[in-house]
Amino acid sequence: MSLLLRTAVRRPLLSRAMSGHAAHNPYLKDFKYKDTVSVLDNTLALSTSEHTMIDRFVRVNQAGETAAVTIYKGQLAVLGRDPELRDLLMHMRDQEVEHLRIMDGLVVDYKVRPTLLLPVAAVGGYLLGMTSAMLGVKSAMTCTEAVETRIGAHYNDQLRELHALKYEPLDALKRVIAKCRDEELEHLDTAVDHGARRAPLYKLQFEAIKAGCSVAIWLCDRI
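RESULT FIELD:
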């Protein structure tokens, strides 16, 4: 995981946030939602277990992006008075809104049943964002680092499984997951650069939030 946590020269908040992984990701050039749409007929060669795997991926990803959007909304409710910090949080929130829009589209394209826990993900994300922000900017950044560490690893796991299928019609799905993964890791780098690891009780907060994300992934996968 240390490979994901790059040390970077400090830059102004918003310019740093916009210059990470996404700047070097070929999938993001001229990216449009139409590039993610999959024709269901193209997946007929997949086995039942492989269809089930894709259902699980999209269901969990939709819930995760729902929570991500509301985490930033909760942080903005507390920290939004600082103009520079507000711009940073809004930039990351807007990326998560785009991720959620894409996942909502994939739910329709692949005829996936959303998790019954979507409302819980939305409320839980908001409370987590608001609570972490009430503990201070550094704790809010710890929250972001912990969430994005777990989600970045989660997306990497999905990409490994999709690559193992070696099925060309799923390339669009791999591209969109890679896009989301790279932007999540961009958020992770931004959080580290802006004090995440200097928060009070950093290790306790980080591990607790990361473990909570793992539990949420497990539950949304099954319910």
